């Protein structure tokens, strides 16, 4: 019922020459795989426009990694959701833990950004996840549930919001939670969504896992009932790795 989504987050990586990887992804995304798995690649904003051109006709959507909550105005260096949409994006990651940590973004900020994204008709990929200390203290489920409740924008539904569960301690570290912990968290997020947006929408909303997903561990994670795809950082920089994960989702 839920078509898996594999999203690539290039973070602050990538020059124009890196678009060769996007071209490689496009070549390795035939109609048969397109029918089974959605793909979105979120390059740095400098590459947004050429990435859209390079992915044209491939079925790969192009997204951004952050946006400002306002539509326009005196916010030097910032980019609005409307600008990203104008450049060809159709999804925006909001609330990535690196943004929450580096830019002190709160759940309220994330909610406002997500609202801006869906107001432009794009998909908001809303990131949540606990720290290592929170998991060790047995608070992971409570922390993530609170983040989901406070970060979801008004009007969130399965067609405009995707949740990405990314344990902070698993991002870029090579560490992952146990399969049981991932399964428990995703089921709990879906239960939280059910209380927030109703059971029908919650049943349809995609919940991605993110944090050190690689071709080697993708299948085991993606086979879980409530895991509807992956948000992939490091392994999304190389077409061969990203497409192996896409295949594992199919
Ligand atoms: C991410 O940046 O969202 C991420 C999951 O990174 P990595 O796959 O490198 O852990």
Based on the model shown, name its key terms.
single chain, alpha/beta, 250 residues, 8 strands, 8-stranded parallel beta barrel, binds phosphoenolpyruvate, TIM Barrel, 12 helices
So what's the oligomer here?
A: single chain
Fold-level CATH name: TIM Barrel
| Distinct compounds present | phosphoenolpyruvate
Q: How large is the count of helical segments?
A: 12
Radius of gyration: 17 Å
> So what's the CATH class?
Alpha Beta
The CATH superfamily turns out to be: Aldolase class I
Shape: globular
Physical arrangement of strands within the biggest beta sheet: 1-2-3-4-5-6-7-8
Q: Decide which structural class fits the backbone.
A: alpha/beta
The proportion of residues in beta strands is 5-15%
Number of domains: 1
